[in-house]
Design brief:
The protein is an alpha+beta fold. The protein folds into 2 domains: 4-136, MutM-like, N-terminal (N-terminal domain of MutM-like DNA repair proteins); 150-274, Helicase, Ruva Protein, domain 3 (Orthogonal Bundle). Helix content is 24%, strand content 20%. The chain is built from 6 helices and 10 strands. It has helices spanning 4-17, 41-48, 150-159, 164-168, 179-189, 202-221; strands spanning 23-28, 57-59, 62-66, 72-77, 82-88, 97-103, 109-115, 121-126, 263-267, 270-274. The strands form 3 sheets. It has a 4-stranded antiparallel β-sheet. A 4-stranded antiparallel β-sheet has the order 2-3-4-8, covered by helices on one side. Strand 3 and strand 4 (72-77) form a beta hairpin. The longest helix is centred in the last third of the chain and has 20 residues, at 202-221.
């Protein structure tokens, strides 16, 4: 599933290509793509028509398109295979095209939501006073948010009675971090994924946060991480940060610090990648 860097790459593309444009027509080609809009596909399309797209925003793994001064936004979640593409009008339809959005100008491009596995989707929601769709108001800020409170996060992290990787994936504590960047941040911090959060000193917690921030900034600079053709930016291009990963996906390859083979272990229906020498498991 796309994590913060991948979603931010998409957000920037949408901001460049569709912000400020007015919606002329919406066609929902598969109702599952708007299943989170209770009033249905026709109502979803009707409520978007005639409204301009504001500044495209993101929190964690979610992004949204504010609709003029309506106080509502189109919330997008890419799921496992969702793609928001800006394509020339008249370009051949993608095989898994779910929603098409046309605009009332002569720029000649349209927005398409493509989703092979239909786990993602678009929905319309009321905004909170802060301009955030109400259904995601509970999600914490992410490390790249200028308003992220480092001290509050560190204090909350150390109070949790859990393990460090579980905490990093808790979107009510810190958003945008998924399995890939959690493993990468933990490798950089030399912390085992089962390390209890209560055992972290403030300096170690601050160091981990900075590593999470650094690795996501590095991924963002390279367009995100693409292991297959399902994650792409709005122009259909893949990111290439997978070439720079230090732990994730590198089972049996040598650790770039000490040369010990990277190990993979099943973890919460996922996998955790780590160096058994640099990231020693906690004592029982």
């Amino acid at each position: 599933m796309p994590e913060l860097p991948e979603v931010e790459v998409v957000r920037r593309g949408l901001q460049r290509w569709i912000s400020g444009r007015t919606i002329a027509e919406v066609r929902v080609l598969h109702p599952r793509a708007v299943r989170r809009h209770p009033a249905g596909a026709e109502d979803f399309a009707a409520q978007l028509n005639g409204h301009s797209v504001g500044i495209v925003r993101r929190r964690g793994k979610y992004l949204w398109l504010p609709l003029g001064a309506t106080g509502t936004s189109v919330l997008g979640h890419l799921g496992m295979s969702g793609q928001l593409l800006v394509q020339p009008e008249g370009a051949p339809d993608e095989r898994h095209l779910r929603v098409r959005v046309r605009f009332d100008d002569t720029i000649g491009t349209e927005l398409r939501f493509v989703d092979q596995r239909t786990f993602g989707g678009l929905s319309l929601h009321e905004n909170t006073p802060d301009g955030i769709p109400d259904v995601i108001a509970h999600i914490a800020r992410d490390p790249l948010d200028p308003a992220f409170d480092d001290a509050a996060f560190i204090a909350a992290l150390r109070l949790r009675r859990t393990t460090v990787k579980r905490a990093l994936l808790d979107q009510t504590l810190i958003s945008g971090v998924g399995n890939i960047y959690a493993d990468e941040a933990l490798w950089r911090a030399k912390l085992h994924y089962e390390r209890p959060t209560a055992s972290l000193t403030r300096p170690r917690a601050a160091e981990l946060l900075q590593h999470a921030r650094d690795v996501m900034n590095a991924a963002l600079a390279e367009g995100g991480t693409s292991f297959d053709s399902l994650y792409v930016n709005v122009n259909g291009e893949s990111g290439y940060f997978d070439r720079s990963l230090d732990s994730y996906g590198r089972e049996d390859e040598p650790c770039r610090r000490c040369g010990t083979p990277i190990r993979r272990r099943p973890w919460m229906n996922r996998s955790s990648y780590f160096c058994p020498r640099c990231q020693r498991p906690p004592k029982a």
